[in-house]
């Protein structure tokens, strides 16, 4: 099967009423990385992820290595606030498989297996809306990964979680990264340092600096990146 990646953005931009809010952005996203998209509030992290995933119409070009409709089927998105069906955890896990025509029994068996991987087994029969924030995000991640997407976008998946729940989600993200290219928007620099292999630093809707995570964190090349990592306000 031809890989979905690299994804290529050429002049991708979010424009509203004649104003460019984000972009233009040119970048290549190769397979295999955990890319942390970082930057101050309003710098365009969420918009960039949404443009890449096709949730946000964009100017410019967003090119996949396979036809766009196929590309959509082979990627997934996890939101800061998980959106779940008002049904059981098991039904939520099985849902993406059922949508793809997987027979009920097989979908149920795969949902059970995925629940084991994500420590959700004891919750399988519970209504998903009754879960805690950390459990919900684990469910959202498990559901997003059950179709084995080649690319996963995660937009601030731990922003509303405490330290313990954050670490649990991070562990699952890091595990998933061995099979799935990951693009993670985060304001948590500890998290970016722990799991990213590559960084995209956004400022005012543009890519200000990008490169391997080790190099970025140990020796950022721009004054704005240095200030941002110090925790200073970057304008
Ligand atoms: N659909 C939209 N309509 C109008 N403005 C928008 C829209 N989406 C994003 N913006 C604007 O684009 C800019 C980038 O927003 P975005 O949410 O992508 O930034 P962010 O880096 O994710 O911010 P935060 O860290 O606060 O979540 C902001 O100025 C925001 O107000």
UniProtKB/TrEMBL annotation:
- Stated name of the protein: Tungstate transport system ATP-binding protein
Keyword entries, A-Z: ATP-binding, Nucleotide-binding, Transport
Task: Establish whether keyword Nucleotide-binding is in the entry.
Answer: yes
The ABC transporter domain covers which part of the protein?
A: 7-229
* Stored InterPro entries: AAA+_ATPase, ABC_transporter-like_ATP-bd, ABC_transporter-like_CS, P-loop_NTPase
State any single GO MF term: ATP binding
């Amino acid at each position: 099967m031809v890989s979905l990646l690299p994804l290529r953005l050429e002049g991708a931009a979010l424009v509203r009423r004649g104003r460019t809010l984000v972009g233009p952005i040119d970048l290549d996203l190769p397979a295999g990385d955990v890319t942390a998209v970082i930057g101050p509030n309003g710098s365009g992290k969420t918009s960039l992820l949404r443009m890449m995933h096709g949730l946000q119409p964009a100017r410019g070009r967003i090119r996949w290595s396979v036809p766009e409709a196929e590309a959509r089927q082979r990627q997934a998105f996890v939101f800061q606030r998980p959106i779940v069906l008002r049904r059981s955890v098991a039904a939520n896990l099985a849902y993406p498989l059922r949508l793809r025509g997987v027979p009920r029994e097989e979908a149920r068996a795969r949902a059970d297996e995925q629940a084991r991987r994500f420590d959700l087994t004891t919750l399988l029969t519970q209504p998903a809306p009754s879960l805690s924030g950390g459990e919900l995000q684990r469910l959202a991640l498990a559901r997003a990964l059950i179709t084995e997407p080649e690319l996963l976008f995660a937009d601030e998946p731990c922003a509303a979680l405490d330290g313990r729940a954050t670490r649990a989600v991070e562990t699952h993200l890091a595990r998933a990264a061995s099979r799935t290219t990951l693009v993670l928007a985060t304001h948590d620099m500890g998290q970016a340092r722990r799991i990213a292999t590559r960084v995209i630093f956004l400022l005012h809707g543009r890519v200000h600096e990008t490169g391997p995570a080790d190099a970025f964190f140990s020796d950022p090349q721009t004054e704005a990146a240095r200030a941002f990592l110090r925790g200073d306000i970057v304008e």
